[in-house]
Amino acid sequence: MFKVIGGDEMAVRCDTRLDPLRGGTELHFAFYRDGWTVRGYDVSDTYRVPSSQLGDSGKYTCEVRTASDTVRKMSDGLYIQIHEIFSLPEIKVTPSKVIEGDEMTVRCDTRRDPLRGGTELHFAFYRDGRTVRGYNVSDIYRVPSSRLEDSGNYTCAVRKRSGSVRAMSDEIYIQIMQIHDYTVQNIIRLVISGFVLSAAVCFIYFHNKW
């Protein structure tokens, strides 16, 4: 099995040796993936894919024939696996609950293929389908002082510098909370906590008394 990184050019060659006594014979070559033709007969013995994708993975075979089609021969199969240069990106936000006025950090998290760890990646961020930051080498989008209008469905995209490979994250909804809303939530939590604590104290008191 051969490994090719997604986005790279892939060249599959049909290698054969012509009998020296028939050196002037013209040969034609065809290529197949999983039994399906990917390139019909041609004088070139090489099948090229300028920018390989996951769908180009499969078992490749080639066939050679004479121009008169009196002789045909098929090669053995060779499995070629196309690897993604990076994983599907995941969008993450810090802090998990953003209060109006707080700094918000949105990160586009992805893992590079170890074989191509040095590949430069560019990242872009979107809110409700509109660009909030164009492609840049930083995988982080910062909002120094978040506002209510910064709420929305966020996605991020990652691509190679050349733009030949691109992937988009799933959506994540980020809600910017108003300060007074957060205060009300805290008060409710304190009241519930106090009620639970009081009930526990009463239970212990009457349990010991009995």
Tally of strands: 18
Low-pLDDT segments: none
CATH class membership of the largest domain: Mainly Beta
How would the global form be characterised?
Answer: elongated
**What would you call the structural class?**
mainly beta
**Topology order in helix (H) and strand (E) letters:** EEEEEEEEEEEEEEEEEEH
The assigned CATH architecture of the largest domain is: Sandwich
| Total domains | 2
Number of helices: 1
N-to-C CA distance: 77 Å
Biggest β-sheet description: 6 strands, mixed
Instruction: Tell me what portion of residues adopts beta-strand conformation.
Output: 35-45%
CATH fold field value of the largest domain = Immunoglobulin-like
Average pLDDT taken over every residue: 85
Helical residue percent?
10-25%
What oligomeric state do the depicted chains represent?
single chain
Radius of gyration (Å):
30 Å
